[in-house]
User: Which sequence fits this backbone?
């Protein structure tokens, strides 16, 4: 039983790592990515190939997976962001790229195509995941609280005004994309070494959707919100053994309902803090923060 | 061979044109990509399939029901998922998320309720061929070309001549000015969605007949986005030209190169255009007023 | 010493066409260091277009724009801001969901340079810089009288205060050239007077070279040493406030024959 719970938590943490990155991109920078699962896949395959075929050290392979994800994010981001595509066409372009990567993974010899890679070393365990998740959340939080994070928020809020404040829109967006792609890559590497088997059909738009839904539901403009939302989204269906398809129906409906009734999601523009919890119990002090 | 490919291309181009016009109608008024449009097309297809095959209705009636049903659903979609956002002046990111949510919800609802079976229309239409100048073309394709042409011409006349049509065209330039001039913009938008839905019903039906009916067939609307970009975003005639052009080009690629490459070609075309010539053939220069 | 070195802003034969429409044609003027110049004219005269050309939002169809003698035209808007050109908008463009303080901090970020890796690791000097930025932002808010609203949401404030915030933000960019696009728009006479005094104070205190678009003539005539009048995208007249008020073509096109001079502010 305990093992089962640990399993659910582990899976949740893997997704938390990816979602935190996406929260920086979608939640804070305001761009929609329909193909984020592709970065996850790249990280998974890179790390798996390195440990499986070349006997690399697990942690180095993870780092390589993250780097690979980030690099691909950078390469895809460079032309698409430079072109200053509108939000929706950027999303469509990411969809196209996501598809292209999937096709690539299905046809390269080293990835063994659609059959996938079995027999990967099962080196991902709970301590590793806890440390990785904590690290990623810490990095994301530092980024958000810095001038780079503010630039991203400015871009999301009003990119014309942001430009008028001296923000380089292109670099700001590219930075966010690269970071979020690297996070997804790291999560992918951990994923591969948890399930010990990967194949291209695992990294579908279902995964991208789930991540986006978690960011939106958790609250755009928050790091802790998406973390909580991810754990809920993974945890509860698992616990209830809800069938995949109905899970997606629920996600879709949830996205619409949130947009209509509570667009700020769970946390809105805020984070979980002691003050907030105290507020629930009527103990918080009055007065806003700067 | 050339004429054959051209005729087939025109048939599929006609369907693409219908989809692209439906998509562009909404795009030009509300300035957002309705990602849920594909699922409306899919539903239109299911409606005509079920009324025709399961309920045994004649094809004419089935198509009419499909048009009406899709129009209604599209209108409902707008009412429930978009107009609350519009009233709040939400940013385009929220619209996109709501649209995505709707698409995911509808697709997977169909999956869950009806099942993942592929449904094929009876082969009466596709099998019968006509010969034209030495090339053979199926009756269905002829129907597609004729019907698309009639529909587009009818829409064109409506937009040019009727008062509501002119209101719609005016709205596509600046909807806020329209409401100042006494046009009920809520009703107008609802009407536009109904028109788009009607077009979705027709194109869905033809797509279903030409290919296969299945829950995720809505993703074919990616072709609509591409067609709209080719023709120029925001331009309805452009959407028609773009659709036909895309259909023809795709078919030629499929015939003379390989059919596997077909979708890659279309997506690459999209990305290329967005990077190099984002205004397309007839696009308006959509610059933001500072 | 050449004229180019003392002039902060110089427009040479600047023109802009949008398809068949000529928004600006052959606009030339100079703005010396510390000058406060007004840009006036009827609606559609091309004033905001001129601003957009200076700030790089639009590209020039012809002519050149120089900042302190160096080419400004052709650069990206954010580059131009970093080179020292700040503007406010006709329709306020604050970051509505962010706090008043954060709006100013983002402006201060413009000249802040600590690197990305330092952000990620939250190094001690980053923490110090962040504290410094907040203090500095607060000081700017005090300068315009918004210190008590620092935590409020930008769009939760009354219109007049939002305008002040816009100006505070522009100041925080530490510009060499300040462009104010109708700062008194939508204000009643009392608020306009307040605003004019604020602009005067800022100009005197920071010695900022300022270019001002305004329709409130009392504000313009009282503040501006020099006025440039535009009509139908072209120059109509240029000169001191007194000269402009007596120029018959200006009176006919814009001010109205019965124009009376306002009190000096």
Assistant:
């Amino acid at each position: 039983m305990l093992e089962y719970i640990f399993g659910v938590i582990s899976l949740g943490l893997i997704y938390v790592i990816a979602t935190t990155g996406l929260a920086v991109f979608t939640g804070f920078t305001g761009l929609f990515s329909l193909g984020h699962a592709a970065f996850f896949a790249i990280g998974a395959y890179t790390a798996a190939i390195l440990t499986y075929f070349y006997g690399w050290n697990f942690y180095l392979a993870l780092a390589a997976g993250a780097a690979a994800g980030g690099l691909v994010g950078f390469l895809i981001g460079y032309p698409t962001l430079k072109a200053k595509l509108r939000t929706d066409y950027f999303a469509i372009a990411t969809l196209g790229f996501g598809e292209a990567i999937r096709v690539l993974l299905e046809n390269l010899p080293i990835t063994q195509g659609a059959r996938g890679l079995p027999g990967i070393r099962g080196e991902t365990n709970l301590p590793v995941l806890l440390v990785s998740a904590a690290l990623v959340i810490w990095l994301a939080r530092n980024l958000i609280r810095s001038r780079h994070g503010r630039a991203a928020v400015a871009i999301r809020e009003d990119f014309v005004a942001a430009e008028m404040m001296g923000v380089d829109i292109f670099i700001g967006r590219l930075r966010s994309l690269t970071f979020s792609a690297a996070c997804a890559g790291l999560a992918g590497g951990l994923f591969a070494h948890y399930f010990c088997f990967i194949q291209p059909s695992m990294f579908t738009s279902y995964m991208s959707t789930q991540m986006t839904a978690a960011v939106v539901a958790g609250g755009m403009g928050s790091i802790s919100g998406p973390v909580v939302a991810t754990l809920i989204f993974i945890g509860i269906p698992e616990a209830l053994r809800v069938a995949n398809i109905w899970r997606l129906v629920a996600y879709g409906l949830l996205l619409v309902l949130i947009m209509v009734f509570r667009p700020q999601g769970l946390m809105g523009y805020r984070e979980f803090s002691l003050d907030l919890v105290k507020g629930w119990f009527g103990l918080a002090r009055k007065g806003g923060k700067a | 061979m050339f004429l054959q490919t051209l005729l087939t291309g025109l048939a599929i181009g006609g369907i693409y044109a219908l989809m692209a016009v439906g998509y562009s109608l909404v795009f030009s008024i509300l300035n957002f990509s309705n990602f849920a449009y594909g699922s409306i097309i899919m539903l239109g297809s299911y409606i005509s399939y079920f009324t025709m095959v399961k309920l045994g209705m004649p094809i004419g009636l089935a198509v009419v029901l499909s048009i009406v049903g899709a129009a209604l659903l599209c209108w409902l979609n707008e009412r429930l998922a978009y107009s609350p956002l519009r009233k709040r002046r939400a940013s385009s990111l929220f619209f996109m998320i709501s649209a995505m949510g709707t698409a995911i919800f509808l697709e997977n609802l169909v999956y869950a309720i009806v099942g993942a079976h592929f449904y094929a229309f009876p082969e009466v239409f596709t099998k019968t061929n006509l010969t034209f100048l030495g090339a053979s073309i199926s009756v269905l394709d002829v129907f597609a070309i004729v019907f698309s042409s009639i529909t587009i011409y009818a829409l064109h006349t409506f937009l040019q001549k009727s008062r509501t049509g002119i209101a719609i065209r005016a709205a596509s330039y600046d909807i806020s000015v329209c409401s100042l001039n006494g046009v009920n913009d809520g009703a107008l938008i609802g009407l536009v969605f109904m028109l788009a839905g009607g077009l979705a019903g027709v194109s869905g039906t033809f797509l279903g007949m030409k290919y296969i009916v299945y829950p995720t067939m809505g993703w074919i609307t990616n072709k609509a986005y591409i067609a709209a970009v080719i023709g120029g975003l925001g331009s309805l005639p452009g959407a028609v030209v773009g659709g036909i052009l895309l259909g023809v080009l795709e078919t030629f690629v499929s015939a003379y190169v390989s059919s596997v490459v077909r979708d890659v070609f279309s997506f690459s075309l999209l990305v290329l255009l967005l990077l190099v010539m984002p205004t397309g053939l007839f696009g308006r220069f959509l610059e933001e007023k500072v | 010493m050449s004229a180019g070195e003392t002039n902060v802003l110089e427009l040479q034969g600047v023109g802009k066409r949008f398809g068949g429409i000529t928004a600006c044609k052959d606009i030339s003027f100079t703005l010396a260091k510390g000058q406060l110049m007004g840009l006036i004219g009827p609606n559609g005269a091309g004033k905001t277009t001129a601003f957009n050309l200076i700030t790089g939002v639009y590209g020039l169809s012809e002519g050149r724009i120089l900042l302190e003698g160096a080419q400004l035209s052709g650069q990206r808007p954010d580059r131009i801001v970093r080179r020292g050109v700040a503007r406010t908008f006709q329709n306020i463009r604050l970051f509505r969901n962010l706090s008043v303080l954060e709006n100013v901090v983002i402006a201060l970020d413009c000249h802040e340079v600590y690197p990305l890796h330092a952000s990620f690791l939250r190094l001690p000097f980053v923490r110090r810089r962040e504290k410094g930025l907040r203090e500095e932002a607060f000081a700017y808010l005090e300068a315009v009288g918004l210190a008590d609203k620092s935590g409020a949401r930008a769009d939760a404030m009354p219109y007049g205060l939002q305008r002040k915030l816009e100006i505070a933000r522009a100041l925080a960019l530490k510009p060499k050239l300040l462009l104010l696009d109708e700062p008194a728009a939508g204000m009643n006479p009392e608020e306009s007077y307040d605003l004019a005094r604020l602009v005067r104070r800022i100009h005197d205190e920071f010695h900022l070279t300022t270019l001002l678009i305004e329709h409130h003539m009392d504000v313009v005539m009282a503040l501006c040493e020099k006025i440039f009048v535009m009509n139908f995208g072209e120059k109509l007249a240029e000169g001191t406030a007194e000269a402009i008020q007596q120029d018959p073509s200006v009176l006919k096109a814009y001010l109205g024959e019965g124009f009376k001079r306002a009190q000096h502010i």
Observations:
- Residues 284-290 of chain A have pLDDT under 50 and may be disordered.
- Residues 124 and 178 of chain A are 24 Å apart (CA to CA).
- Chain A has twelve helices and no strands.
- Chain A touches chain C through 31 residues (CB under 8 Å).
